[in-house]
Each structure stands twice: as structure tokens, then as C-alpha cells.
Amino acid sequence: MASESVILVTGGSGLVGEAVKWVIENETGERFGKRENEKWIFLSSKDGDLRKEADVKAIFEKYKPTHVVHLAAMVGGLFKNMKYKLDFLRENMMMNENILWQSKEFNVKKVVSCLSTCIFPDKTTYPIDETMVHDGPPHDSNFGYAYGKRMIDVYNHAYNEQFGCHFTSVIPTNVFGPHDNYELEGSHVLPGLTHKCYLAKKNNTPFVVWGSGKPLRQFIYSRDLAKLFIWTLREYEEIDPIILSVGEKDEVSIKDVADGIVKAMDFQGEYAFDSTKADGQYKKTANNAKLMKYIPDFEFTPFDVAIKESVEWFEQNYDTLRK
Ligand code: NAP
Ligand code: GDP
Prior knowledge:
There is one protein chain. The protein is an alpha/beta fold. Helices cover 41% and strands 15% of the residues. It has ten helices and twelve strands. The strands form four sheets. The protein has a six-stranded parallel β-sheet with strand order 2-1-3-4-5-10, sandwiched between helices. It has a two-stranded parallel sheet with strand order 6-9. Strand 4, helix 5 and strand 5 form a beta-alpha-beta unit. It starts with a strand and ends in a 7-residue tail after the last helix. 43% of the residues are buried. Guanosine-5'-diphosphate binds next to helix 3, helix 6 and strand 7. The site of guanosine-5'-diphosphate has 22 residues, from helix 3, helix 6 and strand 7.
């Protein structure tokens, strides 16, 4: 990015968007910090409804971005995904359609969009890599979200082949960190359990973890993911997606997550599993070899340190955070 760049971040008020903003504002190094020739614009839904073509066109006319980091999406944990499959499919398809089309219309030099490891095939061999996105149906619990997201990769290739656009995507594993969504029902597991453990401690009630606690997941701290997003925007040239994840050896069980939260909150009370609730996909172990080939010296924040920082942020911001 040699000349002046205007980088538009959709979903700038969400978990990942706030982390990108934090890294851009706080990192001093040239590698991940803000560079002099860059202007970063962070959007929220107050700037326009990305499901509406006219709103998206007006945003592009206003800012004339040279680069787009497309994070905005309808997002939620397993239980929200099971309930609103059509909304996940439709709303995400509409946002992606509008963002990619206007990016092409406004000659945006590069777009990085966001997929997720939960869009991978359910019946598969492990570890999963970037070549396997379209190899079979996703897990039934989130097929609306998964097919909507998979279409971004299809779009990226079609835009590239027909118009030469440099549109690409990344595939993060489960993300967590400050500014997460802490709703009790609809959120992802780590913020959901953080809130539940906090209430159990406050009210002296049992801390109940949904499901068996056995499923396995790889977690990435939002501020690590933000750095990798910034690297992708500046350095990654492929159209094919790239997995942004910790290694296979860092996969943990849901019980490990619950234990980590209990420790970070110093919760001493009763702790149980509700196995009448769904477990979702047992595992979706992703291989980060492609990432490590490109950026071998990248250091991930240790899981316990990242949980501690996230829990502290939650406790300090309880009155105003999303819940
Ligand atoms: P999030 O915290 O729920 O934030 C969603 C963002 O999208 C917010 O900034 C929200 O704006 C915006 N948005 C939603 N609907 C919109 C609309 N109709 N018009 C305009 N803006 C809209 O989500 P996140 O966890 O940061 O997710 C960011 C990206 O990472 C998504 O593409 C998601 O699929 C992907 N991802 C997330 C995870 C995870 O574990 N969280 C894992 C893998 C991939 P408001 O704040 O104004 O509502
Ligand atoms: P996933 O990784 O896409 O499946 O999404 P989640 O972040 O929602 O994680 C789901 C896994 O965590 C399942 O195995 C759930 O049974 C388990 N889990 C345990 N407690 C909770 C909770 O409070 N909320 C959520 N979303 N999942 C929970």
C-alpha cells in the first residue's frame, strides 16, 4: 500500500472490529500499527444498514475507500444459529452482496472478508485446511450461516476471474476478547460462560455449562486476530482463503474453557454440566500451516492470559457492554 489508502472496516463496532481499532491505535511497530499513509474508518450499523444497497452505495460515495475489511455480519453462537437459520443465510448474503458489488463499482484495490471454521464440512478428515471449504455439507446446526459465508469465497473467485478484483477472505476459529457479545442465550461459548459465571458468583447460584463439555475448539484472542487481519490486508496476495488460528496442539475442550473462566473469576461455587443442551459439532480442528509458512514468527497470546484480560475487561465494563 504505497500511496494514500482509505481503509473502510465494516462491523467496526463489533468484537473483531474493536480489536482491529485497538491494534491500529495502540501498536507502535510498523508491522501492525497504523502507517502514515493510511486512513482507517470504522463503521457501525449507525452509519448505514449494509443489507440495503442504497446505504452501502452512500457509504462508498462518502468515504471512497481504496481498501475494505469486511467484518459486518449477523453473528451468534450455536444456540442462535440453530434458531435463526434463514436470517443467518439471508442477512449475511445481503450484506456480502452489497459490499462486494460496491467495492467492484468503486474500484477498491483489495477486500478482505471474514469466513469462519464453522462453515467447514461436517463429515471430513482432520485437520481441515483451506482447500476443503466446499467439500461437503456443513454441520446441520448452522447451515444457514455456513452457506452464506461459503458464498463469499465463491464470489471472490468470480469477481477475480471476470473483473480482476483482488477480493480475498480469512477463516478465523472461535474468537473472543473485549467488546464481545455477552448475551446469555445467543452469544458464543466463551462470552456466554463469562457472563454466567459472573452471575453465579454474584448470586451464589450454580455455574451451569451447556452440553457435555467434551467438544473441542481452537480459540483465537481478538487482538491476535486483529494483527493477522492487518497483515492479511497488507501482505496476503491470494484469492483463496487463509485460516487464522492457533495450532492443532492448542485445541481445548469446552470444559477447559469453563475451567479457565472459573479460575480467572476466582469462582468457588457449585459447577455443573447440562447435558440436555446441544453439543453442536464435536470438533472442527483446523490446520494453520499456511499461515505459519507466511508469518512463522507470529506469537499468539497464551490462552490463560487472553482469558484473564477478557474477563477483566468484562468485569470493568459490565454496566455498558452488550448483554
Ligand atoms: P459482532 O461482535 O456481533 O459484530 C458485528 C458487527 O457487524 C457490528 O459492528 C455490527 O454493528 C455490524 N452489523 C451487523 N449487522 C449489520 C447491518 N445490517 N448493517 C451494518 N452493520 C451491521 O461480530 P464479530 O464477532 O466481531 O464478527 C466479525 C466477523 O468475524 C463476522 O464476519 C463473523 O462472521 C466473523 N467470525 C466471528 C467469530 C466469533 O467467534 N465471534 C468466529 C469466526 C468468524 P452494530 O454494532 O452497530 O450492531
Ligand atoms: P460453535 O463453536 O460454532 O459451535 O459455537 P459456540 O461458541 O456457541 O460453542 C458451542 C459449544 O459450547 C457447544 O459445545 C455448546 O454445548 C458449548 N456451550 C457450553 N455453554 C455454552 C453457552 O453458554 N453458550 C454457547 N453458545 N455454547 C455453550
